[in-house]
Amino acid sequence: MARPPRLRAQTQGTQLDRVYPWGALWCLLPREDWPFVDELRQRYIGARKMIGLLPVGTRPGDDSPRLSFFWSLPCSDFVAWEQRGIAAWRDEVAQMWPEAHARLATVQVHGALARASYRDAVVSRWHRGRFVLAGDAAHAMSPQLGQGVNMALLDALAMRDALRAGADLDAALQRYQRERQAHVAIYHRWSRWLTPLFQSERDLWAQGRDVLLRPMGRVPGGRGHMLRVLSGTQHGWFGKLALAPEFVEALSQPVVRVADDKTEAVA
C-alpha cells in the first residue's frame, strides 16, 4: 500500500508536507467492563504527557469490543522509550491513571504498541487525470480534533455529488476539490494552533488551555460551536456544513455485521 506522501507526489501539487515533532504509541485493548462505552477519556500532565482511551467497536471476524489506547510521546523519544524497559513505562502509566493501567495486562512487550507519527500536509492539486486524492492523502493534519475519518467520509460524499452533477470528469474533480478545500482549510488552522496546547513542552500554554477551554462550553453559543467543530460540520469561522437528510439518516442506522459463514446478517 502506498503511503500518503507518495500518493500526494503523484498530483505534483504538494505545498506543505511536514512531520509533527510529537507522535504516540497506541494499541487496541479489550473493552471488557470499561464503563465509558461512548466517550473518549484522556489524562494530561500539562502538555508533556497524555493517555487516552477511546471505544472503537469491533473488528471484522471479532465480536469483542475494543478500546484504542494511546500514549503521547515525542517521535525523537521512540528509541529511548524502547530501551527504557516496558515495566518502568507501565509503572508510569499506573501512577498517572491506574484505571488505564489495569487495561494493559496484554501489553507486556514493546512490540505490542505501534508507533504513530502525524503530518501536516497541504496540496494545491488533488487530482491528475483519473488519479484523485482523498482523506489524509489530500489533507493530513494532527489528530487533536479527531477529524480524520469525518473528513475522509465528507470527501467521499463530495466526490460522489460532483461526479453525479455532470459528465465532464475534470470539471467534476475541480468542483470536488474546491468544495473540500473550502471546508478543510479551517480545520488545518485549528489543528496547527491546538496541537502545541496538547502535545509540547510548553507548560504555560497548557495552563492557558485548561483555563480557557473548560468554560467555553458554558458560553452562549459556545457549546454548539464546539460540537460542530468536533463533528466535522463547522464551515469557516461561523458557518455550518449542511448535510443531506438522507446522509444523516444513514449515520443513525445500526451497523450491519455480516456473519462469518456469510449466510446471515445481524444488526
Automatic annotation (TrEMBL):
A molecular-function term among this protein's GO annotations: oxidoreductase activity
Residue ranges constituting the FAD-binding domain according to the UniProt record: 82-185
Keywords per UniProt: Oxidoreductase
Signal peptide start and end residues: none
Statement: the UniProt record of this protein carries the keyword Oxidoreductase: yes
One Pfam family in the UniProt entry: FAD_binding_3
The protein's name: Oxidoreductase
